[in-house]
Amino acid sequence: MIFNWFKKKHNLEDFPGFWQEYENSFEEKLPEDTGDIRFVVFDTETTGFDFEKDRILSIGAVVVRNKSIEVKDNFEVYLDQEKFNPETVKIHGIIQNEKFDKLSEMEALQKFLQYIENSVLVAHHARFDVKMVNKALSRHGLPKLKNKVLDTSVLYKKTRISTNLIDRDRVYSLDEIAEAYNIDMTDRHTASGDAYITAIVFIKVLSRLGSEKISSLRKLYRF
């Protein structure tokens, strides 16, 4: 499934240099063949699920190209946030005074944009992660992400439809899909760990959909 995010018209010169570089990366068209496309599979760990009140604590990402994870091409940042929710520590394990380097929200966003450029983004329940990043961008007066986005939870449903093993109203969690595909869950609920697990899910889903259905970017978008 592809999400087409609303894009406001704006004067590029009004924004910082790193945003201008990010926007300029879209002048290069994406390859038509999916095997040549740089997919960035990413995940966010947050203080909670409220788009207005909660904040991003970490972002993890890894690149998939030609149905292969490029392990060395990875991304991970931790953000220094004033807002903190002790109740979510049991999920992501990030404590408030963790002893590792943290970036400001603006610095983390800058690095993330420089990493993703015009790649196709992939996430599980992508709407949440994309909207959290967009909310962070808006706090700094920046527009929304411009990238095309794929959601592995939606793509997984497509594989189930083809075998009639589908409850159309069911929301499949990453845990359920990982279990179905026998994927190791050792690093579950860290941003980088979830991004890696999602990348494996993405590759397995693409394989199950069949090469004909995903041979071109246009076909994958339609699908």
From TrEMBL:
Key words, A-Z: Exonuclease, Hydrolase, Nuclease
Domain Exonuclease: 38-211
GO CC field: cytosol
Pfam family, one: RNase_T
A GO BP entry: DNA replication proofreading
GO molecular function: 3'-5' exonuclease activity; DNA binding; DNA-directed DNA polymerase activity
Presence of keyword Amino-acid biosynthesis: no
Alphabetized SMART domains for the sequence: EXOIII
Function, as annotated: DNA polymerase III is a complex, multichain enzyme responsible for most of the replicative synthesis in bacteria. The epsilon subunit contain the editing function and is a proofreading 3'-5' exonuclease.
Quaternary structure and interacting proteins, as annotated: DNA polymerase III contains a core (composed of alpha, epsilon and theta chains) that associates with a tau subunit. This core dimerizes to form the POLIII' complex. PolIII' associates with the gamma complex (composed of gamma, delta, delta', psi and chi chains) and with the beta chain to form the complete DNA polymerase III complex.
Name the record gives this protein: 3'-5' exonuclease
Organism: Christiangramia crocea
